[in-house]
Amino acid sequence: MSDDAPRLRIERPAPHVCLLTLDRPEAANALDQQLFAELDAALTGIESDPDIRVWLITGAPRRDGRPWFSAGADLKEALQPETDRAPVDPARVVERIAAMLKPSIAVVPGFCTTGALELILACDLRVAGHAAQLSDWHLKATGLGIGRWGSAARLSRLVGLDKAKELLLTGTVVDGAEALRIGLVNRLETDGELMERSLELASTIAAMPPRGVRTTMGFLALQQDMPLHEALRWAELTPDLMGLELRPFRDAGTRFADRSQALLRPAPGDQPTL
Asked: How far apart are CA 169 and CA 145, in angstroms?
């Protein structure tokens, strides 16, 4: 692969769903400046396209077929002379992912460490395969276990302070099952069905009312640092502030009753039973 070859593969595998694939298999999908520039541009496209309601990010397998997400920041790039290309701030791109109101799903098939872990922590949901290997090696690699792209801050909020200390101070590698147990990922899937199940999850979300999804995402982000009573008050105010007219529960009850009657109604040709 040449230095200027695309690092990010963009696909539309299902209606209203976009899939981004880190595609540097010869470099363990390491995150370099060009990849971040392509990811930044892809995020702009996702945000501006009303047809995209959910997006996923994953990594291409290694050349030998090993499942892989990413080995994190490209440390070899730091040894190379600077180019005239305008640098992209990776921390800004990662924070942009965290702030987006279109749901994001990280699909983790294999190795995912340090900067790559920070990338998936910024996503809304994480789905791992059994072969996933997740870790944070900031302390060992840089001498400081905080992470410039949000590792310590997001990890401690996700898995709890004590477990975050263990992962950050030891560099422990956890597999998919352990990642699910500690709350680092939302779902665990068999390796062969990982992408299929992740796309099913994305399609389920994409079928929801888009404005409702966006408002729900915004409310969840806003309320997380509020006292409970304040968050409950904002929950009352949010629909009016966003100009949303909620369907009355009686309408939902009517639809439920209609569906129930349809399920109970005999199909044409069925014989009545005594």
From this structure: 7
Q: What mean pLDDT, rounded, does the chain reach?
A: 90
Contact in structure between 116 and 133 (CB atoms under 8 Å): no
Q: Which two tokens stand for residue 183?
A: 């709350």
Residues 6+ apart with CB under 8 A from 76: 27, 30
| Nearest of 88, 90, 153 to residue 119 by alpha carbon | 90
Spatial distance between the Cα atoms of 164 and 153, rounded to a whole number of angstroms: 9
Q: Which domains does the chain have, with CATH numbers?
A: 8-206 (3.90.226.10), 210-264 (no CATH)
- Each residue's pLDDT tens digit, 239-257: 776 676 666 545 555 555 5
Which residue reads 């806003």 in tokens? 222
Q: Name 167's Cβ contacts closer than 8 Å, sequence gap at least 6.
A: 135, 136, 155, 159, 174
